[in-house]
C-alpha cells in the first residue's frame, strides 16, 4: 500500500505538555482519512507538524514520499491546506488571495484566472471576489481558504474543520468536490467534529486521544472490530471513553 | 433601586477588570516581548501614582482658590484666568480625546452590554459616570465642587451656591459631551472603512499639529523676525483701532437693577477677569479706558471697600481674553456664572447658570440619543466593497513568481492599512507643510533658498533627507514585517516559498512603498531647484537604493527576532513594533543612510564634481549590494529558526 502520509514516533511537546506523543500515522494514497479526537487531543498540532508550521520534537515524517523537514518547499508544492485559523491576509481581496496562491505555485496568469473564476463560482463568492477578506463573514473566509487550498490542484489536502460555518448548499457542493478529488487519486486528511460528515465521506479513520493514536484503519474494519453495526459516533465515544463521563448534574437548571 | 445599584456596581467592576487585564496582557512566548510588555505596564502605574497627589493638590487649590476669590485677595484675576483656561482646555480635550481613544480600539463590547439584562438608562448612566475615571475630567471635578465651597466658606454664600449649581451643570455637560463624542465615533467605527478614514484623519491631524505654530506665526522682514502676535499687539496699541479688534459685546443688563445689597451682590471688588459679559464686552476687555464696539463705556467697578484684605484693583491688562465664539462654550458660561455674582451682577450669573444648564440638558439628550442608537445596533455593519474582482498580477523583472507575489502582497497589505497610508504619504505631506511654513517666513522662501547657485547641492540634499524619512516612515512594517501580516503569514508559511524568497519579496515590497514618497519628494524639490546637477539627483536615487539594500534585510532579521502582535489600523502602541526593534531601527536607519550621504557630500565638497559624487555613491552601492546578500542570507536563516514563534505572534497568540 502506497502511503501519502507516513509518520514514525511523531512527537511534539510544549514545555512539559506533550501535545503529540509518538504517533505512527499511515494514510494511504487516494483515501479520505478522517482524523478524530476530542478537544485538545492533539489533532491541530499533528496537522501543523505535517504541514510544516510546527517542527516535531521527535520522530520522522514522509509526505507523498518526501521528507518535509529536508525539502519543505517541494512538499508544499504538492499540498493544499485549510488550517484551523484559515490563514488569510485580511487586506487582500478574495480574488487577490487566489492570485497570490497561484503565483507562488508558479501558475501562469491564464490558469490562475480560469481556476479562480471556477472556484469563486463554486463557493458562491464571485460577487464578493473584489471585497477585502477583512469584510468577509466566517463562512466566506472558510470558503476562500478552501478555494486557495484547491487552486494549485494539490495531490494531498489537509483540511482542519472544513465544514464549520459553511452553509448546507455549499457544504453539499464541497462534499461532492472532495469525493471527486479522492476519486481522481487525491488524498485528503480531514479533521472534523461533525462525525456524520466524517462517517459519510471517509474511508479511513484515525482517532487521537491525549496525544496518542488509539485507533487507525479502514472505517469498515473499525466498525467490525466491536459489536458490529455501530455508528462512528459510538465507536468514537467508546474509544475515548466519553460515554462513561459524568459531569455535575446541574440540578438548579431544572428548577 | 437595588437592581440599579447592582448593575452600576457590576459595570464598574467590569471596567476595573478590563483595565487590570489590559495591563496584564495575554500569555506571550517571547521573553523579550514579556519584558517589553512589563515596561509598558509600568507607565500607567506611574501615571496612576502621580495622579493621586495631583488630585489632592487640585482639591486643596480649588478650595483655597474659591476662598481667595471670596476674600478678594491680590491674585484673584490670575486665579480666575487660570480657572477659565483650565476648564476651556478640558472642554476642548473632551472633544478630541474620545477620537483618539476610539481610534485606539473599542474599549467596551457594546454587543455584550446590549445583551445584559440591564435597563438602557442604567447603561447610559454608567457610561456617563465612567467619564469621571478619565484623569483630565477627574482633575477638574474638585474645581467645580470645591471652588464654590471655598467661596461659601469665605462668606460668599449666594455666589458660591450659584457657582456650585453651575459646576454641577457643567459636570453633566462635560460628561454628556464626552459620552456623545464617544458614541458618535463608535457609530462611525461600526463601518470598518469609515472608521479607518477617521483614524487616518486623526493621525494626520496629530502629526501635522506640530506645524501649526510655525504656520500661524509671523516671519522675517528687513528688521528681522517678528512673531504675528507681536504685530497684532502693535496694531492693537494703535489709537482708534480698538473697535476692530474687540469682539462685539453681549447684551449687558443694567447692573444696578440686578445687583443685590448683600455682600454677594454688593459693590464688586473683583476685577473683570472673565472677559465674558463684562462691561467691556464679551470675550475681551477693552484696553484701559476703552469700550466695546457700540457699547457706551461703563465705569469700572467701584474700588473695594469691604471684606478682609481689600486689595488694590488689579489691572485689566492681566485679563485673559478668549474669542467671541468661545463665550458659548460651557466652560465660559460657567465662568460667567462664577464671576458675575462676585461683581455684583447676580442676574448675569444666573443667566450663565441657565446657559450651562441648557447646554448640559441638550448634550445629555444628544448623549442619550447616540448611546441608544449604538445599543440598538451594536454590531459592525461594514458593507463589503470591492473595486476590482480580477486582480492584476505583477511579475517583477528579474525576480521569480514567488518573490513577485510576496512583494505584491506586502505592498497591498501595507498600503491598505491606516499606518501604511500614513507611512507612504506623511513624508511628502510633512514636506509640503514645512514648505508652506517656510514660505510664510517671507524673506528667502524655499524656492529662492533652493534655487541659488548653478550647481547648488541643496535640492538633492533635501531630497535625500526626504528619502531618509521615506525609509524611516514605514519602520512599523519594516521592523515587524512578519507579524504585520497577521494570519496571512501562516498562508505564506504554508506556501511553497523559501525563507529567502519571503525575505527578498518583503524587501522588494517595502522598496516599492518607499519609492512612492521618494518620487513625490524628489519631483517636488526638483521643480523648486531646477539648477541642481542631474548627477546629484541620480546620486539621491542610488544612495536611497543602497540604503534600502542594507536596511531591508537588517529589518527582516530584527522582525524575526522581535515579533510583536499588532493592529496596523488602530491609533495606539498596538501598532508599534517591539520596543527593542524600534530602538534598533533608529540605529539601522542611521547606519544605512548615513554612509552614502557622507561619501557623496565629502566627494562633492572635495572635488565640486557632481559626477565624482555619483561615482562614489555607485561604488558604495556595489558594496551595499554585497552586504545585502549576506544580510539576506542571515535573515533567511533567522526566519527559518523562528517560523513557529512568528506564526503564533502574528496570530496574536
Descriptive overview:
The complex is a heterodimer of chains A (255) and B (653). Chain A has nine helices and ten strands. Chain A is an alpha/beta fold and 255 residues long. In chain A, the strands form two sheets. Chain A has a six-stranded mixed sheet, sandwiched between helices. In chain A, a hairpin with a 2-residue loop joins β1 and β2. The longest helix of chain A is centred in the last third of the chain and has 16 residues, at 168-183. Chain B has 653 residues and is mainly α. In chain B, 67% of the residues lie in helices and 1% in strands. Chain B has 25 helices and two strands. In chain B, strands 1-2 form a two-stranded antiparallel ribbon. In chain B, a hairpin with a 2-residue loop joins β1 and β2 (224-226). The longest helix of chain B has 41 residues, at 31-71. The chains are: A alpha/beta (255), B mainly alpha (653).
Topology summary:
The complex is a heterodimer of chains A (255) and B (653).
Chain A: E1 3-14, E2 17-23, E3 26-28, E4 32-36, H1 43-51, E5 58-63, H2 72-77, E6 79-82, H3 94-104, H4 109-122, H5 138-150, E7 156-160, H6 168-183, E8 187-191, H7 195-201, E9 204-209, E10 212-218, H8 219-225, H9 232-240
Parallel strand pairs in A: 4-8, 4-9, 6-7, 7-8
Antiparallel strand pairs in A: 1-2, 1-3, 1-5, 9-10
Chain B: H1 2-24, H2 31-71, H3 76-104, H4 110-115, H5 120-130, H6 135-138, H7 141-153, H8 157-189, H9 192-208, H10 212-216, E1 219-221, E2 224-226, H11 228-236, H12 242-245, H13 255-258, H14 330-339, H15 346-376, H16 401-415, H17 418-439, H18 446-451, H19 458-472, H20 475-478, H21 488-494, H22 499-528, H23 534-561, H24 579-607, H25 610-650
Antiparallel strand pairs in B: 1-2
Helix pairs in contact in B: 1-5, 2-7, 3-8, 3-9, 3-14, 7-8, 8-9, 8-14, 8-15, 9-17, 14-15, 16-22, 17-22, 19-22, 19-23, 19-24, 21-25, 22-23, 22-25, 23-24, 23-25, 24-25
